Amino acid sequence: MSLLKLGKDNWARTSPTKLGILYIALTLFVGFAAINTGNNLLYLTFGMMLSFVIVSGVISMFNLARIDVDFKVPRDIYALSSTNLIFILSNKKPLIPSYSLTIDLNGRKTFVPYLKRDTKLKTNLRYIFNKRGWNSIPDATISTSFPFGFFKKWIRIDLGKKEVLVYPKIEKVDISSDYLKEKKGENEIDRKGFGTDLRSIKDFSQGDNPKFIHWKASAKKNKLMLKEMQDEESESVTLQFNPTKNKGELERQIVSIASTLMELLNRNYLVDFISPQKTYQHTQIGNPPREVLSYLALYNN
């Protein structure tokens, strides 16, 4: 990799800061004064001020050189909720560290004051996706005003043509919503427990009881999966999605039913979800219910 390899288009842009504009104006003033008066001291001062501009440009160029940027997104993203995007900065320069770096993603910024030579660093950036469904990651920039703060030099970062699936917005709801109806013949209160009936299968997390690892599912998915057992006393409910044809009302309906589903699961209900295309049994629905949320995220989208 070339020492001066920059970013997406190998081209660094430069723009003056407010301090830089003031400095340029002062430099021009000193230059005109030197020409008008012929004063050698003013010529010397003018030359030094110009040299600071040149040095600033060269140093900032090297400061941005050979920095690779990658990023990761969380598995579960909800519309209009703040999401942590993880940026991984790699300084490929073997001898020179980088200073005062700013990553900008559509106006959302994160600041890295110091990046050691030949090392990696992770930084978080809070970002909000405004709509459900597939969302493109916008182009990001990495910039620096180092060393003097006179100029901002920036380059575009190639994050690739990545898209993320954004679930519907989740709001606080009252579970006595019209979407909720009790199943006939079932009079049980659902709680996660240690009974004999399988409730669902979910990803194994630190702190979970290894006794309930589902080895067959783990082998199939090549990662540890956990059995969730239901108590002997449990209540099962059905959540039915009857989509309206009105587009504006549909969005509100999707938010409402997704929020109701999450609230029920957080209260440890067994939930069967019925959609026009498919019925999701409670044994298929985990927490978070990714399959159902994905369906709602992509519905009519």
Kindly describe this structure:
This protein is of the alpha+beta class. It folds into 2 domains: 163 residues, Immunoglobulin-like (Sandwich); 119 residues, no CATH class. The strands form 5 sheets. A 5-stranded antiparallel β-sheet has the order 1-9-8-4-5. A 4-stranded mixed β-sheet has the order 11-15-16-17, covered by helices on one side. Helix 1 packs antiparallel against helix 2. The N terminus is likely disordered.
Overall 3D shape? elongated
Beginning-to-end CA distance, first to last residue: 42 Å
Biggest sheet record = 5 strands, antiparallel
Helix content: 25-40%
Question: What count of domains describes the coordinates?
Answer: 2
Overall structural class, as computed from helix and strand content, comes to: alpha+beta
Overall residue-averaged pLDDT value:
83
Write the element-wise H/E pattern from the N-terminal end onward: EHHEEEEEEEEEEEEHEEHEEH
**How large is the count of helical segments?**
5
Please state the CA-atom Rg, rounded to the nearest Å: 29 Å
CATH-defined architecture of the largest domain: Sandwich
- Could you list the spans in which at least 5 consecutive residues all have pLDDT below 50? 1-8, 177-196
Tell how many strands the DSSP assignment holds: 17
Strand content: 25-35%
Q: What is CATH's topology name of the largest domain?
A: Immunoglobulin-like
Look at the structure and name the CATH superfamily of the largest domain: Immunoglobulins
Largest beta sheet: strand ordering? 1-9-8-4-5
Brief characterization of the structure:
The chain has 301 residues and is of the alpha+beta class.
